[in-house]
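Recall the central idea of this unit: under ordinary conditions, the amino acid sequence of a chain determines the structure it adopts. In this exercise we apply that idea directly, starting from the sequence alone.
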Amino acid sequence: MKEGLPPFDYILTVTKNCPDIPPSLQFLISPAVTPGHTIIVMVQNGLNIERAMFAAFPSNIVLSGVSMIDSHEGELGTIHHEEHDLLYLGAFRNPSLSNAVETAAAKKFIEMYGKAGKTDIKFQEDVQWGRWRKLIFNAALNPICAITGLDDARIRLVPSVVEGLVMPCMKEIYDTAKALGYVLPESIMGDMVNLDPMDLYLKPSMQVDIEKVCYFILRCGYK
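Accordingly, the structure predicted from this sequence is:
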């Protein structure tokens, strides 16, 4: 990193979260983090992703961003953004810092992020609750769509898959969250199944990834 730069006020981490693959995220951003000053905004999926950040940067505020966004690549190099960004943002609780200070930092970022009027950004008090809420969709539909090859619209046209695979998987995630103290509304499972408009035929990220791998294998003639 270039020397002599003023300290960064914010660092946004928006990559796919792969905590078990080095180099770690905290290692990558460490040259840009000023202790006690830089606010780290983790717009990434996953549970407990803040723990490594608090271990590496115990005096820094870490914000949680849970994004519900329709962004996909249609033609090679062309990104389609059909729906407005919906972002739930709040503060991960750092036991070394004041809850009021963390909340104020989250609300200030929300104000800045929403200035253009192109995003729907909501403050979320209980960020872990919000992460479990998204897992109802991600941990169920993502792998099932990848395995079956059905996008999240076409999978709804096969009732046996929805009733036999998707809903039981979502119920297991729902029950796990409840056992840990995060009580989601019972309607959340149906809401997440029908989250995206049918006519978009959206493919969850795991399905996109596996299709790209299969295309690469076929194109290169790998066996």
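The first strand starts at residue 10 and ends at 13.
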